[in-house]
# Entry
Amino acid sequence: MDRQVNGITLHYEEYGQGMPVVLVHAFPLGGVMWQPQIEPLAAAWRLIIPDMRGFGASDAPAGPYPMQTCADDIAALLDELGIQQAVIGGLSMGGYISFAFLRRFPSRVRALVLADTRATADSAEAKAGRETNAQLVESQGARAIAEKMLPSLLAPAASEGLKAHVRGIIQRNRPQGIAGALRGMALRPDSSDLLPQIRVPTLLLVGSEDNLTSPAEMRTLESSIAGSRLVTIPGAAHLSNMENPPAFTSALSDFLRAVEGS
Ligand code: MLT
# Structure
């Protein structure tokens, strides 16, 4: 489905009924990365899975895409769908966008799910790396980014089928969208100040082999967010929901059941 929001066409998928749960994808993928979670979760909840601006079937206007703009896109989509409050969940870049959403629309967050992400801003070195990658994708296309990032997105033991699937998702994205998100992520503020203020139920998930956002970084989030719980997903690196769907989905389902009962 498509909606006109915030000056762009935003594509999203919607499944199931009940408590609304928004799942925000990682960079540089698309909503399709949540495919393993759809069937089990949509049996009990209303899933809203957008392609963020620049990705999948959504528009890819000229960047950069600040995380707060992406958060505004989600809020506008929820307005269109008549949803006041939702569980907001995101993996990696999806987590950055979730922090931005929480900062701008705290009363709209029923609960938070933060997977393989961090609250801190980019270092000067990381910002420079983003610009290098933006220029790489602009000059050589999405395939170059896919080849560069794939080894850190998935554990070495990931199947060839999964590697090909993730590569395909990345390569179908437009260079302008990937560059816009890279330059937008580089602009994001440090969200560490938000952590002690979080009062909603929060689930943290991390792949045991994640080298991009390590289990140690996620433990910092756990110690800063009151009442949060960190679940480690065995045998997974960064894209933990795709690499070990049963463990990821089961932790998420248990959490959503508890939120609903609270
Ligand atoms: C992601 O998976 O969204 C990216 O690794 C985030 C980042 O590059 O910081």
The first strand starts at residue 2 and ends at 5.
